[in-house]
Specification:
Largest sheet: none
Structural class: mainly alpha
Number of helices: 11
Helix content: over 70%
CATH architecture of one domain: Orthogonal Bundle
Number of strands: 0
């Protein structure tokens, strides 16, 4: 087998990306609290993690916010992508696209500060949303993830053959029926991918959540970030291992289902 520099560079790239994750997984089973010394294999920190109510409460809060914000982002992002790709001419289209894509290039610090000022003003005038509540963090994460979902679905709709939709409309189908029967099944893998991306972005966010969250809506990344001042606890390694395992299983299941669907379509 001939040696190739491209394979070597690819291996080094993957090693650079995944070696820290492998270290986290390995040291989550270390009985010692210190990373520099390995004593013996143990599930001690997983037991400590299960008995820690603060981390468990923050984890449940983050998952709840991530699920809800990802779902709303997928619904609104799909609607926005359809408006951009299917409605060619309408007043204010440029402003609409700019407003949708702004979070992609805007620093998260500026977004967090602007959302904080918005929520403070709305709370004084309308009494909603509570600045320190879960609702405020969810709205902030929807604002962050909506643009990513819109761009994904928009790219899929642009590559889609419009003749299929036009043929269905010529045969008498209503636009709503065309969307649910033809368009939605075709773009469904992209919608699922957008949901997973929005979920990951919401679960990972710490900057925006630090601005708009309060004692009643402390997320997991905020707990992890605050614990860094006292050193990385092996409990965080155990939690990261569990999250990586669950997310990896979800990605593998999605990849297998997508591959089977492509294979079934080719055979059909």
């Amino acid at each position: 087998m001939r040696f190739r520099w491209s394979n070597c560079i690819l291996f080094l790239g993957y090693l650079f990306l995944y070696f820290p994750l492998i270290c986290i997984v390995v040291y989550s089973f270390n009985e010692s609290r210190f990373v520099a010394s390995w004593t013996r294999f143990s599930l001690k920190w997983y037991k400590v993690l299960i008995s820690n109510p603060i981390i468990l409460r923050a984890t449940l809060t983050s998952i709840k916010i991530a699920c809800f914000s990802a779902t709303i982002s997928v619904i609104l992002g799909t609607m926005a992508a359809i408006i951009i790709t299917r409605f060619k001419r309408f007043s204010g289209k440029t402003i609409f696209i700019g407003a949708i894509t702004a979070p992609l290039v805007m620093p998260e610090v500026i977004m967090g500060l602007s959302l904080l000022m918005l929520f403070v003003g709305m709370e004084k005038i309308f009494g909603w949303p509570a600045r320190s509540g879960v609702c405020a963090v969810t709205i902030a994460h929807i604002t962050l993830t909506l643009s990513y979902v819109t761009m994904l679905v928009q790219a899929r709709l642009q590559d889609m053959d419009k003749a299929i939709e036009e043929a269905a409309l010529d045969l008498g189908a209503s636009p709503i029926k065309v969307f649910f029967v033809i368009t939605l099944p075709i773009i469904s893998p992209t919608i699922i991918l957008g949901w997973l991306l929005a979920f990951a972005l919401s679960l990972d966010d710490v900057v925006i959540a630090s601005f708009v969250a309060g004692p009643g809506a402390t997320t997991l990344p905020m707990i992890v970030f605050s614990s860094l001042r006292f050193g990385i606890s092996p409990e965080i390694n155990a939690l990261a291992t569990i999250l990586m395992t669950v997310l990896s299983i979800g990605v593998i299941i999605f990849a297998v289902l997508t591959y089977k669907k492509k294979t079934w379509n080719k055979e059909k």
